Amino acid sequence: MANPKRAADDLVTVDEFYSLVPDGRKADLIDGVIYMASPDSHRANKLTGFVYRLLQEFLEARGIGGDVVFSRYAFRLSEFSAPEPDVAYVRSERVGLMEEGGMRGGPDIAVEVVSRESRRRDYDDKRRLYEEAAIPEYWIIDPIQERVEFLVLEEGRYQLVPLEENRLFRSRALPGFWIDVDWLLADPLPPATRCIEEILGGKQQGAV
């Protein structure tokens, strides 16, 4: 757990973070402190894969380009911060900033699936980091509280986007992509194939 009063010379840099955390182990570097993630719950793991698949198949179907990463990929936001979103989208014009060990800068969409141990980081620490890094969209999916927030950067500050019909969100960072909150809160999740067909078809009806 982080100690907010740690001396500056105790802070971990991004380069040190890359060398200290083993390959395949999910972790976040936030303000010079490493947070190791606990194992995903089954539901969180399914949700992360579901969101990744919708984004990836949307890009492929529309031939938009860009890249979607699925956990364990760090984004260097400053000398002392390199979070690893659960899912992230980077538009094609910025893919050149993505390197083998991480990206120089933030993604265009960051997605976090909240767990019990990550709640404070996801709602507070990462929201602040992503806002300071001017990441256009931040999606917080909280299966524990059955809550989803879509935050969009407006004049340098995150604003909570109201949902159409209380359930539909249309991305500004990825035009044409929309998602139904009912899908994200369903247990079990709906078939991803059916959801992506609705997204590509421009339908507004949920798949649950």
Tell me what the structure shows.
By secondary structure, the chain is α+β, with helices and mostly antiparallel strands. The chain has helices at 14-20, 42-62, 119-132, 181-185, 192-201; strands at residues 27-30, 33-36, 67-70, 75-76, 87-90, 98-99, 102-104, 109-113, 137-142, 147-154, 157-160, 168-170, 178-180. A 6-stranded mixed beta sheet has the order 3-5-8-9-10-11, with helices on both faces. Strands 4-7-6 form a 3-stranded mixed beta sheet, with no helix packed on it. α2 runs parallel beside α5. The longest helix is centred in the first third of the chain and has 21 residues, at 42-62.
What does this entry show, briefly?
The protein contains five helices and 13 strands.
Features:
alpha+beta; three-stranded mixed β-sheet; 5 helices; 208 residues
Count of beta strands: 13
Quaternary organization: single chain
Radius of gyration: 17 Å
Number of helices: 5
Question: Overall pLDDT, averaged?
Answer: 92
Overall shape: it is globular
Task: Annotate the secondary structure layout.
Elements: H1 14-20, E1 27-30, E2 33-36, H2 42-62, E3 67-70, E4 75-76, E5 87-90, E6 98-99, E7 102-104, E8 109-113, H3 119-132, E9 137-142, E10 147-154, E11 157-160, E12 168-170, E13 178-180, H4 181-185, H5 192-201
Parallel strand pairs: 4-7, 8-9
Antiparallel strand pairs: 1-2, 3-5, 5-8, 6-7, 9-10, 10-11, 12-13
